[in-house]
Amino acid sequence: MYFESLSAVLQMDGHGTFVWSAYFITLGVIVSMIYVPRRREKRFLRQLGGQIRRSEGSNPPSARKEV
Amino acid sequence: MWTLFHKFGSPPWLYRLSGAILRWLLPITLLALVAGAVWGLLFTPPDFRQGNSYRIIYIHVPAAVVALAGYYVMAIAGAVSLIWRMKMADIAMRACAPIGAALTFVALVTGSIWGKPTWGTWWVWDARITSMLILFFLYLGVVALYEAYENKALAAKACAVLSLVGTVNIPIIYKSVDWWYSLHQPASIKFTGGSTIDPSMLYPLLFMISAFYCLFVCALLLNMRVEILEREQRTAWVRALATERGGS
Amino acid sequence: MHPVRKQRLFLVLFLVVFSSSAIGLMAYALRGNINLFYPPVQVAAGMAPVGQNIRVGGMVVEGSVQRSDTSLEMRFDVTDFEAVVSVVYTGIVPDLFGEGQGAVASGKLDEHGVLQASEVLAKHDENYMPPEVAEALEASKARMAEQAAEGGYGQ
Fold first, then answer.
1. What's the pLDDT score for residue B87?
2. What confidence score (pLDDT) does residue C152 get?
3. Is B15 in the A-facing interface, judged by CB distances under 8 Å?
4. The pTM is what?
5. Which residue of B lies nearest to C92 if distances are taken between CA atoms?
6. How is residue C94 annotated by DSSP?
């Protein structure tokens, strides 16, 4: 550990804003790199699953509203 | 060899394999990224000239290195998709582009933040930085070009050509600091001869570069999974998966 | 390999080789413009335009930095160890600016060949080390210089 206190870690001799903002921006990008495809996958499977159930539910097609 | 090649061409096989890999690789990668960041931020000595601002190196260099390597992955996948018309190569190429764009963005932004306290400017149009910006636009270009086509086979062809043409930029980025007078300093890690970075700083940097490579693999697989599902949505195995997992 | 695939492979190679050479030639033609700054030797040779905005980069000469007592004005010389260009600048320099360190100054050359700078950037090198290591290196260098000065050749 090269810092004596938490405030020294945050300040980093005046460079804290630069260093920490760089790390937090990177954190944000990495989280979205992982989160976005995972969410897309889940949502896609949910939508497709719903579609399949609906089309199965509407079988046989003669049961549809044909007055 | 050929059976493996054909297996890679099989979407359900790749989907299942990627799931099995991600189950352990993703937690390890995230853990390594956190460990590397803590190592770089708290347990490495400050630099004799730059003080603590140099700690940005532990994300800036790995992001840039993997962004360059990722471009080769994309271009090779593009070449395979052009020559063999392999669907999985096309999917891999498509999956590389947003990841590469994100990593290039990280390299550019962290470099800009690092430039202010050291060089005294956020941005300068020197050869290294400008060629890196071109890389960012190349990645975005592949994403946009792919979306622009309705026909996926045509989209794959156009994107493969663009990514192959863009490969010339990679050696330019790499050598720009040696070929031209630039503000950016030359590379500190050298393949031949000694590195000009102290071992106490080199090891966490190499650790972080490996962690970013793992991140690239994870993000690539995650993106490929979505792409595989979307393209194979009419097949029985995807429909079975959807009723089983998405049905609730 | 299937002849159609072979043909496509050649197409791919053709694409990469020709686009690379096209861009390579372009970069070669523009090589002067891709440089961010002029080294002092080019300025001394009259290759840098006078009265236009240019950048000059090099090492700040040891002992050349003079600061005004009353304003932020300062003068210093930059060198590439072949020629020297004087720079006049008013403003705040980056923390890493210092004698014996790299700097890039942008501004206009006046008729005396002095760069009237509007911006000074610090250029650092690719060496990273902890302060203690830098001190140890400095000390061992000084020791070696001392030994050389004492004429330690005979020993």
1. 86
2. 52
3. no
4. 0.90
5. B120
6. P
